[in-house]
């Protein structure tokens, strides 16, 4: 066992003994932002419902903040305004998120960030990370794939992707990348399918399902 050298000042302080690690290889991670580190849904949900004049349910995709509605016209409008709200609202950070990422960073196990936020939002996202005490710097890449861009898993193919979106998790796993899905109410159905299919090692997508796992809290990554 050997201790990791701590910098003089940390934005978030931890007990020094928290940074003890073994010399065995340990997983490295790349983090999605919205839904994993940024708590977007409680911020946007009431505002979106008020603007649309409807009650939204869970089950939507990343471009609607995980919200859904049975009326296709409502979903079209929801996706239109979601990107503007992405740009304009200061999201809250999930509790303990910065603490976990700093520990991973100091252990050399934080690869970077990957997001569907457009490149025009890079400065906003960088400011958000600074405001909430998340690690940043030249070695921690923020990659924006944009609205409808490529697969997140191809950005950090050597890392485990930490994600909340069923669509993104499945796409990454299909590309051979391990995924840790953070449990949220809107991905509960996906977890049910995951549990059912993992029980069948001979199933047609068995290898893909086996690359996925679920966590309840980011602390489980340490």
**Helix content range of the residues, please?**
25-40%
What is the highest CATH level, the class of the largest domain?
Alpha Beta
Sheet with most strands: strand arrangement = 9-8-3-10-11-12
Strand content: 15-25%
* Spatial extent as radius of gyration: 18 Å
- Most strands sheet: 6 strands, parallel
Helix tally? 7
CATH evolutionary superfamily of the largest domain:
HAD superfamily/HAD-like
Overall pLDDT, averaged?
79
What is the H/E order?
EEEEHEEHEHEHEEHEHHE
Helix and strand content put the structural class at alpha/beta
Shape: globular
Structure characterization notes:
The strands form four sheets. Strands 9-8-3-10-11-12 form a six-stranded parallel sheet, with helices on both faces. A two-stranded antiparallel sheet has the order 1-2. The protein is globular, with a radius of gyration of 18 Å. The chain starts with a strand and ends in a 7-residue tail after the last strand. The longest helix is centred in the middle third of the chain and has 17 residues, at 72-88. It has two domains: 2-39 and 93-221, 3-Layer(aba) Sandwich (Rossmann fold); 41-88, no CATH class. The chain is α/β, with parallel strands linked by helices. Strand 5 and strand 6 (67-68) form a beta hairpin. 33% of the residues are buried. It has seven helices and twelve strands.
């Amino acid at each position: 066992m050997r201790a990791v050298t701590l910098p003089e000042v940390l934005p978030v302080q931890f007990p020094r003994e928290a940074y003890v690690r073994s010399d065995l290889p340990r997983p490295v991670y790349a983090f999605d932002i919205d839904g994993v580190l940024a708590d977007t849904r409680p911020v946007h949900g009431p505002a979106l419902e008020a603007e649309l004049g409807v009650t939204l349910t869970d089950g939507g995709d990343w471009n609607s903040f995980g919200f859904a509605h049975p009326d296709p016209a409502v979903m079209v409008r929801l996706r239109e305004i979601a990107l503007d709200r992405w740009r304009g609202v200061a999201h809250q950070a999930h509790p303990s998120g910065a603490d976990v990422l700093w520990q991973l960073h100091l252990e050399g196990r934080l690869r970077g960030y990957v997001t569907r936020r457009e490149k025009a939002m890079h400065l906003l996202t960088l400011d958000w990370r600074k405001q909430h005490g998340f690690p940043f710097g030249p070695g921690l890449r923020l990659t924006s794939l944009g609205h409808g861009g490529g697969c997140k898993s191809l950005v950090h193919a050597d890392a485990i992707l930490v994600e909340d979106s069923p669509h993104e998790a499945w796409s990454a796993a299909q590309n051979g990348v391990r995924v840790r899905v953070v449990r949220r109410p809107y991905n509960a159905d996906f977890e049910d399918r995951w549990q059912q299919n993992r029980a069948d090692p001979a199933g047609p997508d068995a290898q893909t399902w086996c690359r996925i796992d679920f966590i309840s809290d980011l602390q489980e990554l340490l």
